[in-house]
Amino acid sequence: MTERRPDDPDGDETPPLTGAGLVLEPLRLEHAGELAPLLADPALHAFTGGEPDAPDALRARIARQVAGRSPDGRDVWRNWVLRDGDRAVGTVQATIRPGRVAEVAWVIFTPFQGRGHARAAAVALVDWLLAGPADTVIAHIHPEHAASAAVARAAGLRPTAERHAGEVRWRRSLSA
Predict the structure, then answer these.
(1) Class of domain 14-173
(2) Which residue from 116, 118, 120, 117 is spatially nearest to 105, judged by alpha carbons?
(3) How far apart are CA 20 and CA 119, in angstroms?
(4) What's the burial of 26, exposed, middle or buried (CB within 10 Å: 0-12/13-18/19+)?
(5) The pairing of beta strand 22-26 with beta strand 17-19
(6) HEC sequence for 69-87
(7) Is 169 helix (H, G, I), strand (E, B) or coil?
(8) CA-CA distance, 38 to 52, in Å (whole number)?
(9) Rounded to 5°, angle at Cα 163 from 160 and 168
(10) Angle between helices 146-154 and 117-131 (to 10 degrees)
């Protein structure tokens, strides 16, 4: 178990994490070229909506994420590339808000879905967050996305009656 860190994660850079054969490598701007073709798959937007970013927009988004803070400076952003060996198989992210609440999300690239990567990464991420900068972890999951619901459940999150933009809010808290 990791020792709890102070409430403000300012001084911490995004650490590498591991989970069930995966390495969660901190996101860097250099990842943009590798991730662009994997994130360009329209199937990844089936439940979230929208469409893939153009290469320049993706690079700009990654640059914002790597900065580690929301534009207003209130939220801390942590982002990782999931690696199985030397292959990028997905990404995970956490937005750590004031009050020690973290919102998490995961994306597994289409060719690597169904292999347990999301589960391994989500468990590692949620455990890291609750051992450090967060007391509560939240995920928003489309009500028809059974695979993501199974991932959330494996990471110890439970569905709530709350909805956000049509998605079910899942939660795990230290106090529960």
Answers:
(1) alpha beta
(2) 118
(3) 9
(4) middle
(5) antiparallel
(6) ECCCCCCEEEEEEEEECCE
(7) strand
(8) 10
(9) 60
(10) 40
Residues of the chain falling short of pLDDT 70: 1-12, 176
Strands (DSSP E) along 85-150, which ranges?
A: 87-97, 101-108, 136-141
The phi, psi pair for 92, rounded to 5°, reads -135, 155
Q: At what angle do helices 32-39 and 55-67 cross, to 10 degrees?
A: 120
Pairing of strands 136-141, 76-84: unpaired
Which residues are registered as beta bridge partners of 73? none
Residues with Cβ < 8 Å from 40, sequence gap 6 or more? 52
Identity of residue 12:
D
Whole-number Å distance between alpha carbons of 34 and 14 = 20
pTM: 0.88
Instruction: State the pLDDT at residue 2.
Output: 38
Task: Give the DSSP H/E element, type plus range, for residue 141.
Answer: strand 136-141
CB atoms within 10 A of CB 104: 25
The single-letter code of the amino acid at 164 is H
> Using CA atoms, how far apart are residues 52 and 116, in angstroms rounded to an integer?
24
Do residues 171 and 137 make contact, with C-beta atoms less than 8 angstroms apart?
Answer: yes
Domain ranges across the chain = 14-173
pLDDT of residue 21: 87
Tokens of 128: 């890291």
